[in-house]
Amino acid sequence: MVNVKRIVLDVLKPHQPNALDFARTIAETGVDYRVKLIVLEIDENTETVQIQLFGSEIDFNTIQSAITNMGGSLHSIDEVEVHNETVAG
Amino acid sequence: MSLLTQANFLLDITRTRGIVRRYFVVNGFDGALTMLGLIMGFIVSAPTDLSMVVGVCLGAAIALSMSGISSAYISESAERKYALGELEKAMISDLHNSAHGVASRWVPLLIALVNGLAPLVISLLILSPLWLSIAGINLPVPPLYAAILVALLLTFLLGVFLGRISGVTWLRSGIQASLVAVITASLIYFFVGN
Q1: Domain spans, chain A
Q2: Of A18, A50, B136, B180, which sits 20 to 30 A from A79 (CA to CA)?
Q3: Closest Cα in chain B to A12
């Protein structure tokens, strides 16, 4: 079984929801998700953020859907860490 | 997500919590002063049947409520559409299905309801002594005067509410609001009564 353990996303988001609510909503999409959000740039109506997500089994589609629901736009997947946890034999 | 949490979330992302509060106070004040004016008018005029007083006041309260709902909905709907358009331009994406899109459709309705229900609820509370009297319940003061007292109390409470928001002493803010109601009642008494 191949699981995504860590993912780093570059996201453009409106000022609202704020960084705290944005990160919290993303964290709520998984049982053991840890989210680190860094604001990289602030414009008049938007901000560019880097989201680092840690979890045992990250579901990318759910994350993308949560980001879109909050008005955010996923620009790129900058880093990914994937583990193959298939038991041999 | 519960309905209340959802409503709070939509108000937060559109930063309209202050607008809702302002509409509640402004139109609530409208309702209280309109009822105060009508009842003062009945006090200084020839004695009238209480059911007629209730009918006239209720008519005015419903009209105020409908005016509040429609005017707030039309203006807020336009404001939210404009704000969403600006955000879509900045994001270079369609936000119709996002929380911002949902907010642009629901927040005007929410604001309109607050704007319309505030004067209606306050008017109904002011009219409650008249209904009690019609129902045969004896009040310690004549029903029209009791309604005036309720109106003064409600304007005081609206002032207290404003005081708590602005951080001004609640008593001072409450007295300021009540003073407006007292001046209104006095003006009606002097200009209509004489």
Answers
A1: 2-84
A2: A18
A3: B91
- CB within 8 Å: B92 and A73: yes
What would the pLDDT profile of A38-65 be if each residue is shown by its tens digit?
A: 999 999 889 999 999 999 999 999 999 9
Rounded Cα distance between B16 and B14, Å, is 5
Chain A nearest C-alpha distance from B2 (Å): 15
Taking Cα atoms as reference points, which of A36, A39, A46 lies closest to residue A79?
A36
pTM, to two decimals:
0.83
Which pair of structure tokens corresponds to residue B134? 């019609």
Q: Give the integer Cα–Cα distance in Å for B78 and B108.
A: 9
What CATH class is the domain A2-84? alpha beta
Average pLDDT, chain B: 92
Q: State how far the Cα of B193 lies from the Cα of A65, in Å rounded to an integer.
A: 66
Report in angstroms the alpha-carbon separations of B156 from A74, B74, B119: 51, 30, 15
In which residue are the tokens 């089994």 written?
Answer: A57
Residues from A contacting B (CB-CB < 8 Å) are 12, 14, 16-17, 21, 43-46, 68-71, 73
CA separation for the pair B7, A86 (Å, rounded): 45
ipTM reported for the complex surpasses 0.90 = no
The domain limits of chain B are: 3-193
CB-CB: which of B9, B12, B87 is closest to A45? B87
Partnered with residue A10 across adjacent β-strands are A50, A76
**Tens digits of per-residue pLDDT, B44-76?**
988 889 999 999 999 999 999 999 999 999 999
How far apart CA B3 and CA A88 sit, in angstroms, is: 49
Minimal Cβ distance to A69: which of B91, B93, B98:
B98
